[in-house]
Amino acid sequence: MASSGNLTAEQLDFFNVNGCLILESFSSKEEIRKMRDRMAELLDGFDDSFSSIFSTKNQQQHTDDYFFESAEKISFFFEENAFGEDGHLKQPKELSINKVGHALHEIDPVFKEFSFSDKISGMLCSLDYKRPVVIQSMYIFKVPS
């Protein structure tokens, strides 16, 4: 376990060989609860009324603009098949969102606290990153299919 953010020699070896690492119990239950609760608040406050402008003729341009403008915002992205032919959500937005990004770490205090915690910093220092920078953050939803 790497609860303090400092990786063991074994974990570093695994990362160096495989390029990835699973850190079970890296986040406390309290940290996870705070982020999940905050995301529920953000989702509840998200106005999905813009969905009516999605159509087969202009959806691509609207989606591209929304994506490119999301770098400095908290933006919501729907599942690929979230909308019906009428442009409305097929099910509640809570079950239609794929991810939220890309500036949670900069804008939202709960996600900022986690992203810039000593735990994250310690992990990155263990990987020998000299001046790590958080450039993007995402909250990925895993909804029933």
Task: Explain what you see.
This is Phytanoyl-CoA dioxygenase (PhyH). One of its GO terms (molecular function) is phytanoyl-CoA dioxygenase activity. Pfam families: PhyH. Keywords: Dioxygenase, Iron, Metal-binding, Oxidoreductase. Its cofactor is Fe cation. With 145 residues, the protein is of the alpha+beta class. It is 39% helix and 10% strand. The chain has a three-stranded antiparallel beta sheet. It is elongated, with a radius of gyration of 18 Å. The model is unreliable at 51-59 (pLDDT under 50).
Strand content: 5-15%
User: How many helix segments?
Assistant: 6
Largest β-sheet summary:
3 strands, antiparallel
Order of helices and strands: HHHEEHHHE
Widest sheet: strand ordering = 1-2-3
Shape: elongated
The quaternary organization reads as: single chain
Low-confidence stretches: 51-59
State the distance separating the first and last CA atoms. 32 Å
Gyration radius, rounded: 18 Å
| SS content category | alpha+beta
